[in-house]
Model the fold of this input.
Amino acid sequence: MGMHCTVCQKTPQRGNQKTYRGKAKYLGGVGKKITGINKRVYKPNLQRIRVAGEGGETLRKWVCAQCIRSGKITKPVKRKPFSTVVV
Done:
């Protein structure tokens, strides 16, 4: 399946794009009027990132920006944390 988040299964959504003309009332006009409505597609903001798998392996997945920000995925550790060993 193309263009979907592997975490939340978010897919493209259909909607309308409205075109307006006129001056807003708060700016002294008579109000904005809708002059046209066109169909459009709202696509999810997908990013191809590395995700830590269950067995410690690193996988590349398509994940939406909302899942990345909310912490629904865990990124792999790039290197071992620094430790000081006293001998």
The beta strands are 13-21, 33-42, 46-52, 58-64. The helical segments are 65-70.
